[in-house]
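User: My collaborator sent over this chain with a note saying "see what the structure looks like." That's all I know about it. Can you take a look?
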Amino acid sequence: GIRGAQIGDTIDLYTPRVSMVENNWMTRFLTGKMGGELTPDDEALAREVLRTKTIVGLLSKKAESMRRFKEYFHWKMDIRNRNNNNIHEIETE
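Assistant: Without extra context I'll predict from the sequence alone. Here is the result:
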């Protein structure tokens, strides 16, 4: 832990106050709104971008993730185990 930290302290106590700190940089990046106040509409737009433009895979669920990627990207996959290492040979159409 942080030396001298007390139960109930927040990270704000340990971060410098800088006037140029980005306010929710990911929402700004996804919406293209680099200045001004963020609104609920900005949040909704960022969520829509994530919903429609991303696909997520988890290493802890690698087989399921690879199946989803294969289906989404229309891959033809040859999955083999060679020397205990997973090898994924992918052909794209």
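A starting point for your reply to your collaborator: The first strand starts at residue 76 and ends at 82.
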